[in-house]
């Protein structure tokens, strides 16, 4: 059985040692503030332009783009929230789980060995870090347990502070 390491660290998602990082996206794929803003500032507007050209996507889905000026093979845009009919649709447990799983699937389809996630839905989405950790770690563990042919070897959760890191580590 293949083993995929799952870890949680405190850090800046734009400077971790992985092949792909995940953008906490909306389904229109416009990159605003928070994680998306940091990725856009560090990697360049071409990441957003490429993402928007591939959208909109379904809430709970994910797509990959190039990484612009960042040293990654891919940026994976995971839509845990978004817009429908002009109204904001907040993150839900289902959309966070689905976006996490979709991101892992996209990484596998691209033959990537490592991926880093922020805590999806905890910013504008308003989800608690505890519930987010339970959902995302659960989705990662489920994916890893069924991934005998996966190219992934490492799933990294990159958190903003030690409290969030400890919550994710407890779930792992």
Q: Which keywords apply here?
A:
single chain; 172 residues; alpha/beta; Leucine Aminopeptidase, subunit E, domain 1
Structural class: alpha/beta
* CATH class category label: Alpha Beta
Number of structurally distinct domains:
1
The CATH superfamily is Leucine Aminopeptidase, subunit E, domain 1
The average pLDDT value, as a whole number, equals 95
Order of helices and strands: EEHHEEEHEHEH
| End-to-end CA span | 19 Å
Roughly what percent helix? 25-40%
Structural write-up:
The structure is a single chain. The chain is an alpha/beta fold and 172 residues long. The chain has one domain (5-171): Leucine Aminopeptidase, subunit E, domain 1, CATH 3.40.220.10. Helix content is 37%, strand content 24%. Strands 1, 2, 3, 4, 5, 6 and 7 form a seven-stranded mixed beta sheet that branches. Helix 1 (34-43) packs across helix 2 (45-54), helix 3 (93-109) packs across helix 4 (129-145) and helix 4 crosses helix 5 (162-171). It starts with a strand and ends with a helix.
Overview in brief:
By secondary structure, the chain is an alpha/beta fold.
How are the SSEs ordered, and which strands pair?
Blueprint: E1 5-10, E2 20-26, H1 34-43, H2 45-54, E3 62-65, E4 74-84, E5 87-89, H3 93-109, E6 114-117, H4 129-145, E7 154-159, H5 162-171
Parallel strand pairs: 1-7, 2-4, 2-6, 6-7
Antiparallel strand pairs: 3-4, 4-5
Helix pairs in contact: 1-2, 3-4, 4-5
């Amino acid at each position: 059985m293949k083993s995929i390491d799952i870890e949680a660290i405190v850090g800046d998602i734009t400077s971790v040692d992985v092949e792909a990082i995940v953008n906490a996206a909306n389904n229109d794929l416009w990159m605003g503030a928070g994680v998306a803003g940091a990725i856009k500032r560090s990697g360049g507007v071409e990441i957003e332009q490429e993402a928007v050209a591939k959208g909109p996507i379904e809430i709970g889905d994910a797509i990959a783009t190039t990484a612009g000026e960042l040293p990654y093979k891919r940026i994976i845009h995971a839509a845990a929230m978004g817009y429908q009919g002009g109204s904001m649709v907040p993150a839900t447990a289902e959309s966070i789980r689905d976006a996490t799983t979709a991101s892992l699937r996209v990484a596998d389809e691209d033959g990537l060995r490592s991926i880093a996630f922020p805590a999806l839905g905890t910013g504008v989405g308003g989800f608690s870090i505890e519930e987010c950790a339970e959902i995302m770690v659960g989705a990662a563990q489920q994916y890893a347990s069924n991934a005998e042919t996966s190219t992934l070897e490492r799933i990294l959760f990159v958190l903003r502070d030690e409290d969030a890191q400890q919550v994710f580590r407890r779930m792992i």
